[in-house]
Automatic annotation (TrEMBL):
Residues 9-63 form the DUF397 domain. InterPro entries: DUF397. This is DUF397 domain-containing protein. It comes from Streptomyces lonarensis. Pfam families: DUF397.
């Protein structure tokens, strides 16, 4: 995926993610101002794209423990 910018997206997932095919997401790096997210099991699945600032706030909220399981 290049997101129309000509830049390749570098996909990564949490180090907490298991290698046995669990339910995980991958977030992409390399798109200015946006963070693409996809299903880690389906690399050619549809991608959701979030504004970088919003994604950063979401991660901060998760790390703060403000979401209950």
């Amino acid at each position: 995926m290049s997101g129309g910018t000509g830049r390749a997206v570098q996909w990564h997932k949490s180090t907490y993610s298991s290698t046995n095919g669990g339910n995980c997401l991958e977030a992409g790096r390399g798109l200015p101002g946006a963070v693409p997210v996809r299903d880690s099991k389906l690399s050619d699945s549809p991608v959701l794209s979030f504004p970088s600032a919003g994604w950063g706030k979401f991660l901060a909220t998760v790390k703060d423990g403000r979401f209950s399981a």
